[in-house]
Amino acid sequence: MGNFDFLKKTDKNLFEIINEAENLYQNEFFDQCIVQTRKFAENLCKNVLGLRRTTEITFDSMLATLKDKVGGSIEEKEFVDDLYFLKKYGNDSAHSFSVKKDGIEALECLKRAFEAAINYCVYYKNESEAILKENYDVELLITGKKSAKSLAEKYIEEKNKSSKPVKKNSKKQVKQFCSVKSKQAKKTNKPYLIMVGLSAIISLFILLFMFLI
């Protein structure tokens, strides 16, 4: 299963070319993947030109003719821009003296090829416009399994995660208390004190009386 399965019924030859590009990417042959997407773009350009193609042989001359003949719609302009992009990077990889192994660049080429393929199917082959809602699935490219969530759903999910407030320490503060009981003051024996006081006064009077006699 690949991102370009929708192309099978429209053009089997184009599907096989771009499906090979995805296989090359999966095996980390990034330069070869980029060159393959260029091949896909060139064949796409030939198909769109059809009978309008006369003496054009090179990809560059075919693109120039296509650019002159397309209308002014945004979709047509995007389609031509994608083809130019794939031609440029495909040529750079094909004529490079070193292997760049640029996975990001190869992935961008696959995404551009995907957009061009959708435009081709809908606007040149009158296929269902439902595929316009499709997005390139990187997870499907890497694992061969379609992701359960769409790109938009993943974006919203990640955005919600990042916007959640950080939870503060939820531990309840425990009131401090002293476990040592204070000693109660001893009760005063009031009757005893009164008796002691009276005895002292009486003794004082007796001493004074004896002193006076």
Intertermini distance = 137 Å
Rounded average pLDDT: 81
CATH architect. name of one domain: Up-down Bundle
DSSP helix fraction: 55-70%
% residues in beta strands: under 5%
Write up this protein.
- The protein has 213 residues and is mainly α.
- It has a domain at 5-150: Four Helix Bundle (Hemerythrin (Met), subunit A).
- The protein is built from eight helices and no strands.
- It has helices at residues 12-26, 30-49, 59-69, 74-94, 103-124, 138-143, 151-163, 190-212.
- Helix 2 packs across helix 3, helix 2 packs across helix 4 and helix 2 packs parallel to helix 5 (103-124).
- The longest helix is centred in the last third of the chain and has 23 residues, at 190-212.
Keywords:
about 210 residues; Four Helix Bundle (Hemerythrin (Met), subunit A); mainly alpha; 8 helices; rod-shaped
